[in-house]
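Can't paste images in this forum, so I'm doing it all in text. The chain is below; anyone willing to post the predicted structure tokens underneath?
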Amino acid sequence: MRKSVYLTISLLLSAVLVGCNSHNHAGHSHDDGHEHSEYEHHHDDDEHDHDGHDHDGHEKDDCEDEKVNVINGHSHNEDFHSKDEEGIKKHEGEVHLSAAEIKKISTETAAFSEFSHVIVATGEILPTTKGESSVVAPFSGIVSIASGVTVGGKVQAGQVLFNISTNVGEESDLVEKATIELEAARKEYERDLKLSEEMIVSKKELNECRERYEQAKVKHANLASKISYGKALSKSQISGFVKSINVSDGEFVNAGEQLAIVSQNDKLMLQVKLPQRYQKSATSIKTVKFRTAYTHEVFALDKMDGRQVSQAITTSDGGYYIPLLFEFKNISKVMSGTSVECYVVTKEKKNVITVPNSAIAEDQGVAQVFVKKHEDAFKKQFVTLGETDGERTEIIEGLHSGDIVAISDVARLHLASSSNAIPAHTHNH
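Text version of the structure:
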């Protein structure tokens, strides 16, 4: 009988020990290569040694005093994990993104290619020789701007830009005077024409008389066209756009005063101020790119029918720079009088890695790009920059051929990489 009791007790103790060894610690499933030290069970005075692992937060069952080993090399401190507002995740130097965020980022694979030597210089957009026309007041009076006329607006040759209220009587007197002068010039020319046939008047005298007659006709036509319904009219002499308006509605203007400037902007000039030390490069220019202060767009002369119209052989402005002049078709409506940053493209360089300028961010003056390390992760990479043509920049150091580089949403990646927040991630080991 006593022997049976001992056997029963032994069986019960064995069952308890098996149950303890198969205890499931909630929240931790370890199947991904973590090394586990062996369980050590010491049943002295019903106490269990728990070396190396803190199980705060686990529910205790009948085996709460059992020792469970820590997973080597991995800490599960939930305070270590957090999430930023944008949903971007960062871990171990990498910026991790959701599938939705990955779709928003464009990339480019770095590769060796040809790239041109580039000289950065300043420049200015200028009108062509016949590219601008002044609109002046034909008479003194109160000016009003014609409807629809604004700075930057298109105008046609002969279009009325301003109306000037003035003394109609004075205007009429001027027209009448011009009519009398025209009639006198006409009669003189007809008389000299007959006399020239009789060899009494020389050809030179006849030509001078004809010139006076033509001038009288132009003067009369201009005065007559500028008077309509009791108002003087100021018209554009050329088609183009209004570069500037120099008066306001209701302002008194004097005869001959400049009211506006109309620019014929289908053709413009680019003056490049090439630093003197690059004088030898002035003979091997392939094209020039430029960027205005009011736009991030880069314009290239070779895409705008650009051509060099002067080859500088002397320096200007005390010898600090060499002026180069280019003419181009203004397909992008660049405005004359604009200061620009120029990128003078010269001979080719071979085996160069470049990236779009949009791929580059700065961290305290140090350039950096973001290289894709995994399907959902980018890592910050510091780089050394070389020359730029305004659109792409040479990478001297920091990138290798085959690296996948982010070329959009870089500012956001930079912000996430600089943040102290490390978003939560799941552990399915």
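The longest helix spans residues 168-197. The helical segments are 2-21, 99-104, 168-197, 203-225, 410-418.
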